[in-house]
Write a structure and sequence with these properties.
single chain; mainly alpha; 5 helices
């Protein structure tokens, strides 16, 4: 028996690099991204890319408006870090 992922893995909507992130952002947000990335020290650049990749993924999420509304309304399902770590351990996933 094979396991199927809950969320199918296809090509990511936003490539995990500066070019992919910038292509998704528009106008002032793209300029803000470039300003932050160019001002970042080398050891901070990865964090800047990771944060803006998350922003770009949220911007392109087909359910993004629904998720944002649920977060603002306080109805977005949440979990504790302890539960998340337990589930990852049970699944054999890293928890570092």
């Amino acid at each position: 028996m094979t396991a199927q992922p809950i969320h199918p893995h296809g090509p990511e909507r936003v490539p995990r690099n500066a070019e992919g992130i910038a292509a998704t952002l528009t106008g002032e947000r793209r300029m803000e991204f470039y300003r932050e990335l160019l001002a970042a020290a080398p050891e901070e650049a990865e964090g800047v890319l990771r944060r803006w990749w998350c922003e770009a993924m949220l911007d392109t999420d087909p359910a993004g408006d629904r998720i944002t509304a649920a977060a603002l309304d306080g109805t977005l399902p949440t979990t504790t870090v302890a539960d998340l770590l337990r589930r990852r351990r049970e699944a054999g996933l890293p928890v570092e």
